[in-house]
Amino acid sequence: MSKYVFLKDGVVTDRTQIDPHSVFHSHYASQFIEAPEEVDHFWTYDGTNWNPPPSPDLTDINKQFAQTLISSTDWAVQPDIADTNVTPHLLNQKDFIDFRAQLRAIYVNPPSTEVTWPTPPSEVWSS
Q1: Where are the domains of the chain?
Q2: Per the confidence metrics, is the pTM higher than 0.85?
Q3: Residue 44: left (phi > 0), alpha (psi -120 to 50), or beta?
Q4: In angstroms, rounded to a whole number, what is the distance separating the alpha carbons of residues 80 and 69?
Q5: Any residues with CB less than 8 A from the CB of 78 and at least 6 apart, and which?
Q6: Residue 32 class from Cβ within 10 Å (0-12 exposed, 13-18 middle, 19+ buried)?
Q7: pLDDT tens digits for range 30-45
Q8: What is the tens place of the pLDDT at every residue in 3-59?
Q9: DSSP annotation string for 67-115
Q10: How far is the C-alpha of 64 from the C-alpha of 38, rounded, in Å?
């Protein structure tokens, strides 16, 4: 089965297994070209050669994900969240602080390889 792709500035932005001339207006369909089966989104084509997209930079991905996880636990380190004069209050704030410290180490020195991410703590509230 043939694969057809739509290119924008030499980059694949859309693909279909259906002949575009059978389903799209001729002006739009004429912008699709036949491509090898393995070609997918973000591949490039220079008129002769198909090239896969570059591998993602794991250093940047790891740093961004660490930041996302740190941000998702910002609430847990607010001073009033563990205030024993307020009910309910978080009983295991230190677990969140330790978790964030592990994430911060990854954020500051992000590895260029896959990361075994620390397990986020579960909330334990007073009653």
Answers
A1: 3-51, 55-127
A2: no
A3: beta
A4: 21
A5: none
A6: buried
A7: 888 999 999 999 999 9
A8: 999 999 999 999 888 888 888 888 888 888 999 999 999 999 999 999 999 888 899
A9: HHHHHHTGGGGSGGGG-TTSSS-BS-HHHHHHHHHHHHHHHHS--SS--
A10: 29
